[in-house]
Amino acid sequence: MAAPYAKVEQLGPGIARVLAHNPSAFTYYGTQTYLLGKGTVAVVDPGPDLPEHVDALLRAIAGRDVLAILCTHTHRDHSPASRPLAARTGAPIVGCAPLALETVGPRSDASFDGDYRPDRVLEDAESIIVDGKPVTAVGTPGHTSNHLCFAYQGSLLTGDHVMGWSTTVVVPPDGDMAAYMRSLDKLRQRDDYVYYPAHGPAVTNPKQYVRHLLGHRMQREKQILRLVVETARPIPDIVASAYPGLDPRLVPAAGGSVLAHLLDLERRGLVEQQEDRWIAT
Ligand SMILES: [Zn+2]
Fold this sequence. Notes:
By secondary structure, this protein is an alpha/beta fold. Helices cover 30% and strands 23% of the residues. Strands 1-2-3-4-5-6-7 form a seven-stranded mixed beta sheet, with helices on one face. Helix 4 (177-188) runs antiparallel to helix 5 (206-230) and helix 5 packs across helix 7. The longest helix is centred in the C-terminal third of the chain and has 25 residues, at 206-230. The structure holds zinc ion. Zinc ion is lined by residues 73, 75, 143, 160.
């Protein structure tokens, strides 16, 4: 089956999806942009700044008023198309905060869209009205410090917080494992009936899926703790033991996730770093 690049997929009343052509080891087939509303629309996660994707979005919008361009977070596969789309529709860019680089040190890396400039930042639980219906921000830091999900008509657009094809990458210093776990727990307490992630298929059993993700992270944490209790180890050694047979392209991201777990364990007084090795306290 060919991936439906540039096609409009109608998922339900007032919700449609357009896939951008940016497949990779991190994005699956690419970034999925969502259109909410019928008479007027909001665009969620406009995606990478690829002219053919922006053109496909304009065809999907089909001349309707765009009330907002919403971004879940500012990774380069999510927010850069907000600017050409804003220029061509006149719509405001709304949603997550820009990354607070100056207040918290060098949190950014090449995966961040440093040019993101929202017209309005939504805080947790704040809504905008699209076509008579609320779209509500759900603050979900962890994958990035500025990540938001968006609730709409019983569904939740989960960005990269929960994905339909892979576990989420949590890389320090901006990614934070304790925050990520709290944000998963926040979703567990909601009653959304379906998740629409930015990458991968829809999740139709949200509660069960989130429980599975929480369990998976707790297992990973236990495994990492067991490895450093055995002996002091550097991160590459932990990655090799904890992720056997991992796609080499994903090794740096796995190293980031291991570091995120270790920093969380360190905060809780269970491990400490000695030069390049980590050891149980
Ligand atoms: Zn991301």
